[in-house]
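Discussion board: Methods & Data

I've been asked by a reviewer to show the raw model output for two of the constructs in my manuscript, not just the figures. I'm not sure how much to include, so I'm pasting the format here to get opinions. Each protein appears as its amino acid sequence followed by a line of discrete structure tokens. Is this the kind of thing reviewers expect to see in a supplement, or should I convert it first? Here is construct A:
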Amino acid sequence: MYVWDGRFPEKPLQREAVGNLPGHLTPHFDSTVGLLYLSSKGEGIRVYDYTEGTRTIKSVSEVKTEKNQTAVSLMPKYVCDVDKFEVARFLKLWYGENAAF
């Protein structure tokens, strides 16, 4: 994964290895907290912290799930339980079922 400055497309600002994933990456960016979530079919979600001043990213955590998902979608902020320090909630779809986590 590369971080680019759109004003200077000749050279990336940073390169971050994300490993071997079975499918294409789907990015979800939350600008209110500066977190980039990368999901892929069959895997969990990888979380990266984006720092605006230096325009860099660093890996924060990885969420693995029991069942392989078919699709993941970031839900609206108003469904988060701020009393439990929840900053994001996703809807995960897999064959025959779905769940929020």
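Construct B, same format:
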Amino acid sequence: MSQLTKLLDGYTVRVGPISPEDGGGFRATYEELGLSVAGYGAVASAAIAQLAEVAQESLADEPVARSAAAPLRAALGPLQRPCDAPRTEGPACAVGPPCR
């Protein structure tokens, strides 16, 4: 197994539907890479399979190292809103003053 494959195996895959107006089907992405690498398919499993292929092809020449943000993200855990207030009434994460 290549270093790239090992790295990608640790990433979170997100699969979501594509609206019928946009052609339907599914899009799969790696949460850690945003929309920079994506796979598409008529069914979720096809989108995931294409995601793996596209990632291998497009990232093959990139240096393999975990992002400097990965250890920080792991240490902090998921960002959470400090309360249930709408986004416009407080900070977007648990850092900062409490919502009112």
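Answer (T.O., handling editor elsewhere):
This is acceptable in a supplement if you add a one-line summary per construct. For B, something like: Residues 79-100 have pLDDT under 50 and may be disordered.
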